[in-house]
Specification:
Blueprint (H helix, E strand, L loop, with lengths): L9 H24 E3 H10 L12 H11 L7 H12 L3 H9 L13 H32 L7 E6 L4 H14 L3 E4 L27 H18 L4 E5 L5 H10 L4 E3 L4 H6 L3 H18 L2 E3 L5 H4 L6 H17 L7 E2 L1 E3 L9 H15 L6 E3 L9 H18 L3 E3 L12 H17 L3 H4 L7 H23 L1 H6 L19 E3 L7 H6 L10
Parallel strand pairs: 2-3, 2-10, 3-4, 4-5, 5-6, 6-7, 8-9, 9-10
Antiparallel strand pairs: 1-11
Helix pairs in contact: 1-11, 1-13, 1-18, 2-3, 2-9, 3-5, 4-6, 7-8, 7-16, 9-11, 13-18, 14-15, 14-18, 15-16
């Protein structure tokens, strides 16, 4: 590790990281013993089940609901699908259609030999993982041939509600200089316990995340990427009650970036903590295998808590998200750990404290493509002041070597950005990035000055917090409201009825295949 410009104590960093590791490993014991309806619907999708019934209910939901009603969820969807394949000779898709037609009651079929069941599903699972690997290889081929923009990647959002209008805006943004396009999800999709089907042309505050929408946008960005001569990354939102399902759809359609936080759904969407902690693990296994960069949601803490007083909670969460990601096989190079430029602009020396926070994150997570979020909380609708706030944000980003820069919009707090708003924000960032490209390597910080002391203080507070969580456990910590000032009960929130303890004979072939093993995934 390079010498710290902030004079951070490496022993404190190691202590904090070790506490976070213990926190994650303790929770992993719970994760390994449980599954959820979403995990099993994801397995069904990865085994080839798609489509909807006559009332637009997705067939993965139809199948998993049939398993749950029959009391078989604890053995996993793969077990029952494989058993039905042995009994009927049908494909997974045909089995789901048979359940929907009332011709098959999947848990009532005779139970076949476990090895034969596993072989049936594992053969399909291998084909699916090969398809995802091919997408990963295709991304790399693009990067090797047409290349990409320099870091920090310029990241913008589109949010019309209509995927076809989103495509027009996304391609315009790429031509203006954007490197990453995020298609904002429609309001409250994270609370739906199913994934809508097909292309969508209506949404409030965003566009539905569906596999067909992913496919359409991926195709459009590939086209414009070839036109402008650089690969354009596609981002969506892998969170909420369908976290691993959306990860699977993204992997199948070659998304590049996914919002994917271990705790976000618990804190900010009141999704049950047991459900979220199990779902995030499988979603991250998929994202890791697919080569998708995850973006974590620490910036959200600062929308409910003060960015000066609670900065250490952001760092503590980054440490925890890092460890959960490692357990799921995600390399550091795919960890877009989040933080934000959210201090009140009226604070004296706020810029210096923001600089300390950003430099600290860069030094503690040197390989991570950190995602830096723009000022939003204190935007007023004064577009001239807003543009200056964004310029200061951009200056810190290039100074501290951030990886992914979600561009601030001068019209924040007024409306969803127009095309010209994005253009001005991209020009602002390009101007500053170009003029200050090597600023970080030219400047050192004053010994024991305000910037160094601020970073050292935040690190010490984060270490202390992580040691407390290590003693209490993550669930108890959330119940006490220590993250973002938000309290959540262990048995409360949405989706708890979709959590079940695994039984002997549980099968999920994708865990072993995606984590690098060919061994059988039978729960012993």
């Amino acid at each position: 590790m390079l010498k710290s410009k902030l004079n951070l104590n490496p022993e404190i960093i190691d202590s904090a990281r070790n506490a976070a590791k213990n926190i994650a490993h303790e929770t992993q014991e719970f994760i390994d013993k449980h599954t959820t309806v979403t995990v099993e619907r994801t397995v069904a999708r990865l085994l080839g089940i798609d489509g909807v019934d006559e009332i637009e209910k997705p067939l993965p939901n139809v199948l998993v609901d049939n398993i749950k009603e029959g009391g078989g969820l604890a053995q996993g969807a793969a077990f029952w699908i494989g058993n039905a394949m042995v009994n009927t000779g049908l494909s997974p898709q045909e089995i789901a259609e048979g359940i929907n037609a009332g011709e098959i009651d999947i848990t009532k079929l005779p139970i076949a030999d476990s090895e034969e069941i596993f072989e049936k599903v594992n053969e399909i699972a291998k084909e699916t993982t090969e398809r995802i690997k091919a997408n990963r290889d295709k991304r790399q081929e693009y990067l090797d041939t047409i290349g990409e923009g320099p870091k920090p990647y310029l990241y913008v959002i589109v949010a019309t509600g209509n995927i076809y209008e989103d495509i027009v805006q996304a391609q315009a943004a790429a031509r203006q200089g954007a490197d990453v396009v995020a298609v904002i999800r429609t309001t409250a999709q994270s609370l739906l316990d199913y994934v809508p089907y097909g292309p969508t042309t209506e949404g409030f505050g965003g566009t539905y995340a569906t596999q067909e929408n992913f496919r359409l946008m991926r195709k459009a960005l590939d086209e414009v990427g070839e036109e402008v001569g650089r690969y354009i990354r596609l981002c969506n939102y892998c969170s909420g009650l369908c976290m691993p399902e959306i990860a699977a759809m993204g992997a199948l359609e070659r998304l590049d970036v996914m919002l994917n936080d271990a705790l976000y759904g618990i804190l900010f969407r009141d999704i049950n903590m047991q459900r979220t902690i199990v779902d995030q693990y499988f979603s991250r296994i998929i994202n890791g295998y697919a080569g998708i960069i995850i973006n974590t949601g620490e910036d959200n803490y600062l929308t409910t808590a003060d960015a000066v007083e609670e900065a250490h909670t952001v760092l503590a969460s980054q440490f925890i998200n890092e460890q959960y990601a490692l357990l799921a096989g995600i390399p550091e190079e795919q960890m877009g750990l989040g933080h934000a430029f959210e201090m009140n602009p009226k604070i004296e020396n706020g810029f210096l404290m923001e600089l300390a926070q950003a430099q600290m994150a860069r030094e503690i997570f040197p390989k991570a493509p950190l995602k830096y979020m723009p000022p939003t909380k204190f935007k007023t609708g004064n577009i001239f002041k807003g543009h200056v706030q964004d310029a200061l944000f951009n200056l810190i980003s290039i100074w501290t070597g951030q990886g992914i820069q979600l561009l601030g919009m001068l019209t924040e707090a007024i409306h969803t950005p127009f095309l010209q708003d994005r253009m001005l924000s991209i020009e602002n960032a390009q101007y500053i990035f170009n003029n200050a490209r090597d600023l970080g390597s030219e400047i050192e910080f004053k010994e024991d000055g305000l910037i160094q002391k601020r970073a050292q203080s935040v690190l010490a507070d984060a270490e202390s917090m992580l040691k407390d969580i290590e003693k209490e456990g993550i669930f108890s910590t959330i119940m006490q409201g220590k993250f973002g000032g938000v309290k959540r009960p262990f048995d409360g929130g949405k989706g708890l009825d979709g959590v079940v303890e695994k039984s002997d004979g549980y099968i999920n072939p994708f865990v072993a295949l995606m984590l690098g093993g060919e061994k059988e995934c039978l729960q012993k």
